[in-house]
Amino acid sequence: MAFSLDISYIHVLFLAFLTTSFPLPTKGDLIDDVCAEMPDNKPLCLDTLRADPRSKTQNFQVLAQISFDAAMKDASGLPPFVESLQISVRDSGVKERISGCVRNAENALGSITQAKQFLESRRYGIAYENARLANNTLSICGHTFLTPPAIEPLELKQAFDRSEALISIFMVVTRHMF
Questions:
Q1: Terminus-to-terminus CA distance in the chain, angstroms?
Q2: 159-162 long-range CB contacts below 8 Å, 24 or more apart?
Q3: Are 171 and 82 in contact (CB under 8 A)?
Q4: Which region, left, alpha or beta, applies to residue 122 given φ > 0 means left and ψ of -120 to 50 means alpha?
Q5: How far apart are CA 138 and CA 162, in angstroms?
Q6: Where in this chain does the record put each Pectinesterase inhibitor domain (predicted)?
Q7: CA Rg, the chain, in Å?
Q8: What is the pLDDT of residue 1?
Q9: 159: how many CB neighbours lie within 10 A of its CB?
Q10: For the chain, which domains are there?
Q11: What is the pLDDT of residue 14?
């Protein structure tokens, strides 16, 4: 009996040594993990998520809310910005294409607004699909400038690219939630 207790005690000591000497690999920082999925927009992703004090509580629900808020704020400013750009353009062909971009921005805003309802009701798959629809709608604007006269104003491209990137952060986060 004493012999079996000694062996059990030795096993326990050996296991304790193993678990403290060789730590198990742990998951990295959640924000780093999310932003690693966006190599082209990683700096924007890191800045967006880390700038918000709520990001100290690192879980997908909080990151989804942070990324949604950033995407919504940007998307809300897009239609008036594009309208002001349309007014400043003189070329009638470009002006007409930009008017289509105004509609794209408004439709994307509608889709991202609906995503919030689904995020709040924890229907993450549908929130993701609404965000994807918003991004697809925004990309239509750039496609209208592929045929001549292909004079897409740089400010327009930058604004739409940024909005698409912010919505993509939300999409990456919500994809982990369903």
A1: 53
A2: 159/78, 159/81, 159/82, 160/78, 160/101, 160/105, 162/44, 162/74
A3: no
A4: left
A5: 10
A6: 26-173
A7: 24
A8: 52
A9: 21
A10: 28-175 (1.20.140.40)
A11: 43
The amino acid at residue 83 is E
Which single residue is written with the structure tokens 């805003």? Answer: 109
Q: Is 124 exposed, middle or buried (0-12, 13-18, 19+ CB in 10 A)?
A: buried
Two tokens, residue 22:
């060789």
- Give the CA distances from residue 35 to residues 20, 81, 93, in Å, rounded to whole numbers and listed in that order: 31, 28, 38
CA distance 118 to 171: 13
Q: Which amino acid is at 33?
A: D
d(CA 128, CA 86): 30
71-75 long-range contacts (CB < 8 A, ≥24 apart) are: 71/112, 71/131, 71/163, 71/166, 71/167, 71/169, 71/170, 72/112, 72/113, 72/116, 74/162, 74/163, 74/166, 75/105, 75/108, 75/109, 75/112, 75/134, 75/163, 75/166, 75/167
